[in-house]
Structures are given as structure tokens and as C-alpha cells.
Amino acid sequence: MDIAAGTSIGAVRAALPLDPLENRILLCHATGLSRTQLITRADDPLDAAQAARLAALVRRRLDGEPIAYIVGRREFFGLDFQVSDAVLIPRPDTELIVELALERLPPGGRLLDMGTGSGAIAVAIAHTRPDALVTALDVSAAALAVAQANAAANGARVRFLRSDWFQALADGGVADQPVFDLIASNPPYIAAGDAHLAQGDLRFEPAGALTDHADGLSALRRIVAGAPAYLAPGGWLLLEHGYDQAAAVRALLQEGGFGEVRSWRDLGANERVSGGRFGG
């Protein structure tokens, strides 16, 4: 869309075609103004550079690109996270696995986040619990770079390791910390060919972080099968999964020798996280 230089911020805001929240976010990003300044300086005119930046941002959003990728940031668990198209956009429902992990992690506990992506789970836990020893793995070097930047920006102490699931651990990559008190993961769990992959924000997110290119359970199977070798007695495994996968994941956990198996519901009342306790 065309946005004329010299038009007041207030008038532009009222004319933008997006929902009010997105209008505000893009205006703040294009002008460098805060939310409060958009109100107190509503009569200020946009200069030519600001108008051009805003028009480009709005065009990208109208083409379907997620707001988080456009502005390069997303809030998660009260923290500010850098995001790019190398990682999934952190979502409020994933805060559930953070809350469950914090409830179960003992003082000075050792936690492993598998497939960390932006680092949302690992960084949120390490920030909240600076006593914890947090390790985060991802097979993607680009994702690890984003996660490391987020840990640094939020003052979170996290050890990052490039790994195809447990492979780096099996190769001795964490020799001083062979077992963990809790393993958490939000792995790819959308089945290949699922219609949702071609809809909304998912069209722009990295496919390898969304789908296992199989039945949606292959990564979950691999984690459940491998976790016992790296869990301390009584350690917990917590897994985020699809809204319709809870029963299947509980069965995997029970078959894998986990006890106290159950599922927890997300903000939309869907069973979103399942977990169990191993041994002890």
C-alpha cells in the first residue's frame, strides 16, 4: 500500500488495513517510537523514510508473513526473543512446558532442552532458575546462533550443543554432565501432508522444525526411546505435541517404562504436553 510522507502518525494508524495490534507494532517498528509515543506524538508527520519503511512492512504482512519475522522479535515467558526464519516463532502454548519443568526441576537441577530452536524453553528456564544447569541441543547451526543470542540478551546461562537429537551426547559431547534431572522438548510433530503446513504463519516457518516428514510421531518416538539413558533416577521427560496426539504420546511413554504418565492442557484446553517419570 502507499503511505504518503507528511501524513500524521494518528491518521496513518487509523487508515492501516491490519488489526489494531499489528498496526501499532508495525508503526513502532517503522518509526522507532514507543507505544506511548505513538499516542503523545500522534500529530507528528511521517517523514519520507518512515513512510517508505511502513509501507514495505505492511505489504509484507498483507502477503502473509508473520509479524514476528517482520519485526524480528517475539515475547515469550515475559522475555524478549530474537526470531528469524531459521527458527519457529515462540508461542504462548509452549509456556506450559516451561511451567511444568520449573515445577519439577530440583534445586541446582540439570535440564536438557532438545531441539531448542530460538532457545525459548531453555532461556526461559535458565533466566527463571539461575541455579539450574541448562543444556540445549539443536541440529541447525543457524537456530543455535539465534538461541545463543537470546541467551546472551536475557542474561541466561545455557550450554548449547549442535546435535541430531541425542547424537552429541552419545559421542561424549557433555562428558561432565552425563545425566539430567529433566528433559524437555518441543519437537517436530506435524505429519507430512497436513493441510496446516500450507496455512497461516506455518507457510513461512522452517519445515524441519514443524514436521517430521512422516506420521508426526517419529521424533517423539526417538526422544522417548533415547531419554532413559540420559535421565537421572526419578527424572522427568516432558514433551510438547499436537492437539490430537496426547493418547499416542502417553502410550509411547508407558511402553518406554515411564511412570506417573499424564497430559496437561494448554490455553486452548487442548492436551498439549505429556510427560512421565523414569525410574527412581
Automatic annotation (TrEMBL):
Substrate binds at N186, P187, P188, Y189. Keywords: Methyltransferase, S-adenosyl-L-methionine, Transferase. Its EC number is 2.1.1.297. One of its GO terms (biological process) is methylation. This is Release factor glutamine methyltransferase. Gene3D superfamilies: DNA helicase RuvA subunit, C-terminal domain (1.10.8.10), Vaccinia Virus protein VP39 (3.40.50.150). It comes from the Bacteria.
